[in-house]
Amino acid sequence: MASFNKVILLGNLTRDPETRVTANGNTICKLGMAVSRVFSTRDGERREETTFVDIDAFGKQAEVITKYMRKGRPLMVEGRLKLDQWETNEGQKRSKLGVVLENFQFIGGRDDNAGGGNSGGYESSSPPANSKPSASSSQNDDSDTLDEDVPF
User: Fold this and answer.
1) 3-class secondary-structure state, position 152
2) pLDDT tens digits along 49-100
3) Phi/psi-derived region of residue 72, left when phi > 0, alpha when psi is between -120 and 50, beta in every other case
4) For 111-138, how does the pLDDT look when each residue is reduced to its tens digit (9 = 90+)?
5) Secondary structure letter of residue 114 according to DSSP
6) CA–CA separation, 103 vs 147, rounded Å?
7) CB atoms < 10 A from the CB of 12, how many?
8) 14-23, 39-48, 113-122: which range is least confident on average?
9) Which residues of 100-137 are buried (b: 16+ CB within 10 A; e: fewer)?
10) Domains observed in the chain
């Protein structure tokens, strides 16, 4: 019998990522995500249903998520479902369905609250719109030659 276990979620973090490092040096990050769905009832009433999902990330991905993500920020997650089962101190059996992160992608722009214009620790890769080329770059201007080589 064939099986397939893949989940793709797009939502917002419900809390700051919780990260710890094991004795072996492995990084584990636990995060919560809220995923909403909007639908209309038979009466035409518009409703929103939110599902809260616990996600576990490991290794380098856990480190990157911890560094750049905070509560409320959007994130796309690809992963697999995992059923955790345990027994309470009173002897009751419990279980919880969660997601083990396999891949992720940041959604939206950089956080503007970081200040300095270069938020998120990234540097701007293009000059400001009002900047003029320096004298050294205008002396070696090969832009006319390059334009002729472009096939479109």
Assistant:
1) coil
2) 999 999 999 999 999 999 999 999 999 999 999 999 999 999 999 999 999 9
3) left
4) 645 433 333 433 333 344 444 444 444 4
5) G
6) 39
7) 17
8) 113-122
9) ebeebeeeeeeeeeeeeeeeeeeeeeeeeeeeeeeeee
10) 12-111 (2.40.50.140)
